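Annex B. Sample input.
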Amino acid sequence: MPNTSPETNVIAYRAAEQLLDARDPRGALKLLDPVISAHPENTAARLLRARAFFLAAQLRAAEQEFQLIIEREPDNAFAHFALARTLQRANRNDEALGHFRLAAALDPRPDYLAAARFDQAP
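Annex B, continued. Sample output.
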């Protein structure tokens, strides 16, 4: 990547956020790949890329990215919730439920609690 600077990476990240908000996950991925190549440890960029993979229906790539985030930050409730949604979309509902429940245990937001279905047996 020619002459990247921290500022260039921040601009690319912000532009990728806007593209994702505009429902252009593939455009966001193009901007995020160089940012993550330059800063592979950047969890925020990886989380944004995982969301872009999910919205682009690249479920395996989204799953891998969310798993990596969870390995680094096991208490990241959003990553657990998003991984669960990814697994659910791939018809892996039993695996998804475990992550929904972890997300709800880490952060008892109403949407996480509803997805966790604590009122039902596992």
